[in-house]
Amino acid sequence: MPAHQLAPDILAAEREHLAVSRAALTAMRRHAQSLSADAAGDWVSQQVLQGLLDQRVAALADHPDTPLFFGRLDRGTAPADELPGTLHVGRRHVHDGAGQALVIDWRAPVSRAFYQASPADPMGVARRRRFGYQAGELTAFEDEDLTHGGSLGTSKILTDEIERPRTGPMRDIVATIQPDQDEIVRADLGVTVCVQGAPGTGKTAVGLHRAAYLLFTHREKLSRSGVMIVGPNRAFLSYISSVLPALGEVKVDQSTVAGILGDHAHPEDPAVAAIKGDARMAPVLRRALWLHVVKPEEGVLVTRGVNRYRVADYEVREIVASLRGTTRYNPGRTALAQRLAHAILVQMERRGESPDDRVQDAVARSKSVKQVIDQTWPKLTPEQVLHRLLSDAAFLARAAKSDLTAEEQQALLWAKPAKSFRSAKWSAADAALLDELADLMERTPSHGHLVVDEAQDLSAMQLRALGRRCRTGSATVLGDLAQGTTPWSARSWETVLRHLGFEKGSERSGGTETAVTELTLGFRVPREVLDYAARLLPSIAPELAPPRSLRPGAGSLSIRQTDDLPGALAEAVGRALAREGSIGVIVPDALTAEMSAALALPHEVLTPDAAGDHRVLLIPATLAKGLEYDHVILLDPAVITAAEPQGLARLYVALTRAVTTLTILHTDPLPPELR
Ligand SMILES: Nc1ncnc2c1ncn2[C@@H]1O[C@H](COP(=O)(O)OP(=O)(O)OP(=O)(O)O)[C@@H](O)[C@H]1O
C-alpha cells in the first residue's frame, strides 16, 4: 500500500530538482526565442519558420500552477537505453545545457512504465513515485515498491485528484491516467479505437489525451493532415478547451457536427429527421445526383477555320456511359469535356494537323462542347439536388426506388417547398445530406485523426460525414449507449463503426485496425448517486452492466418532494453555496426561464454557445451532456422524461453530472423507473 508522505529531506531534494528543471526550461525558452527565421531563403519560408519558432516558444512556457513533473521512476540496475536510471515524468521534455534529460515527456515510450508498471510486471522499474502538489509546488509524495509482488492499493494522490472541487474548465489527467485508460491513449495511430464507457469513466479525458499522444508520436505526419475533435455543442467544447493547450498542443481543431456540416437548424419533425438520418438515404442521394446525367441527344460540332469536326451522338453516348459512376460527379464532368475534345483532336490529327494541349483545352471550352455537357452532365450544387429531391415527388420516387417506402417518401416531401434552392431552409438532418451530396461531387479532404465524443448520438448520415473526414486516417470514437438522446441514437458500436467506415476487425485501405473497448470505473459520480441512476439502465440500455464508481460518497444523494419548487431551489442553492465547488441546477428545458426568473440568487443560464463561468449555473437538461458540477440540483425528473421520446436517457445523463452531491427536487411524482 503506498504511503502518502511528507518526508522533509526527500521532498526538499525533489523541490530542488524542480527548481533546476524550471531554470533549464527557462534557458530552453530563451534559446528558442533567440533563434531567427532570417536564415530562411524567401519570405514565405521565413513566415513558416517564424510560425514554427513561435509555436516552440509557446510550448516551452512554464505554467506556474502546475509543476513540471508529477512522477518519478527509479529503474533497475541497467536500463537498456541511454537515459538516467532515475527519470522524472512530466508534461514536457526538459534538458539541461549538456543535453541531459531532467524531465521526460509523459508521452515518450519510456514513460509508459509510469502508467503501466505493476508488482506483477514491473517493466524494469523498482520504485514509482507520485507527487502531490498545490499551486505549482510539490507538497507530498507517494512511493510504490514494485519489486516485492503483492498488490498496490489505491493511490491517495489519485483519490485526492478526483475528490478535488471542480471549478472552471476541465483539467488534464496526465498525472493520474489509469492503466486501462493508458492502453487507449497509447493505441497506435493506425488503430481506430471505440470506447464504450459509463458516465464519468474518463472517455472525454482519454480522447483528448490520445490526441496529445498521437501528435507527439507522429508530429510530422499529423501536423500536415491535422487532428480534429468533435463534441456535442459549443458549451462542451469550451469546457474541454483548455486540456490540450495545457499539454502543449495548441493546433487541434475542435468543432461540433453543425460546425463541420453547416449551422443549419430549421426545425423539423423528429420522425422526418430520423428518415433523413438513416443510412438508406446514401443510395437515394447517389441516384438523385446521377439521375441528372441524361442520355445525350445531340453530337458535337466544332468549326475551326474552314474545317468542321463532329462527334456523333452515339459516340457522345458511349463516352458518357464509360465515365458515368467511375469518378465523382464534378471530375466526371471535366473528364467528359476533355474526352469530347480529345475525340475532335484525333480527327484533326487524321486530317494532318498537329494540335497541342492548348487546342484541346480550347475545344473543351468551346460553345458546342459546353452545350452538350450542360445538357447531359449539368453543373449542380448539393442544394439544387436536395431541393429537387424534397419537393418533386416523381423525382424522389425515381431516386428512392425500393429503399424508402411510399410513406417515408411522403414524409420526406416538403409540405410547402421553397421556390428555389436558394431560399430553402435546411434542417440539421439536411446538413448531413448536403454534405453527402457534396462528397459525391468532390472528394472531401481527410484529417489524419478524428476524435468523436458522444458518438452514440450521431445519425448514420452524420457518421458517414465524419467518416469521410478521416478516410485516410484513423479515429477515436467515444460514447455511452445508455446516454443516447437523439431519435437515431445508436444501439451498437459495430453499427456506428460501420457507418464511419471502420468495420470491427477489418482493415481499411489505410491499414486501419479497429478495436472496441470498455471503460468501467467511474471517477466522477459518487457510488450512491450512480447506483440510483443505474435503476434506469434496464429501461434504456439493458445490455449494459451497471457502472462502478471509485468514489464512495456516502450521503451524496437527497430527494425531496415539494409544492414550492422555487422556494426549495433557493434553499438548496443556498446550502450548496455554503460548501466548496461549482453548482449546476439542471432544469427541464421548458422551465428554464421560469426558474431563472424565480431564483433570486446570482446565477447564469448556460446556452449552447458558451460554457458559463458563474459559480451557480442553470442548465437546460438538453445541454447537460458531458458536463459536471460539484453540486447538482435536479428539478422535476418526470418533466424531463416526458419532454422527449428519449426522455429516460436524458434523465440518466442529468443524474450523472454530480461530483459531490445530487439533490433532486420534484413536484410531480418521480418516474416509475426511478422509484
Ligand atoms: N485517471 C483519472 N484521474 C483523475 N481524474 C480522472 C481520471 N479519469 C477521469 N477523471 C475525471 O473524471 C471526470 C469524468 O471524466 P470525463 O468527463 O472524461 O468522463 P466521460 O466518460 O466522458 O463522462 P460522460 O459520459 O458523463 O460525459 C473528469 O473530471 C475527469 O477529469
Compose a concise summary of this entry.
One of its GO terms (biological process) is recombinational repair. With 675 residues, the protein is an alpha/beta fold.
Structure write-up:
It is a single chain. The chain is of the alpha/beta class. The protein has 28 helices and 23 strands. A seven-stranded mixed β-sheet has the order 1-7-6-2-3-5-4, covered by helices on one side. A six-stranded parallel β-sheet has the order 10-9-13-14-8-15, with helices on both faces. Helix 12 (about 280-290) crosses helix 18 and helix 20 (about 430-440) packs across helix 21. About 40% of the residues are buried. The structure holds adenosine-5'-triphosphate (ATP). Adenosine-5'-triphosphate (ATP) binds next to helix 4 and helix 6.
Name every ligand kind in the structure. Answer: adenosine-5'-triphosphate
Approximate shape = globular
Mean pLDDT: 91
Radius of gyration, in Å, reads 30 Å
| Biggest sheet character | 7 strands, mixed
* Low-pLDDT residue intervals, each spanning 5 or more residues: none
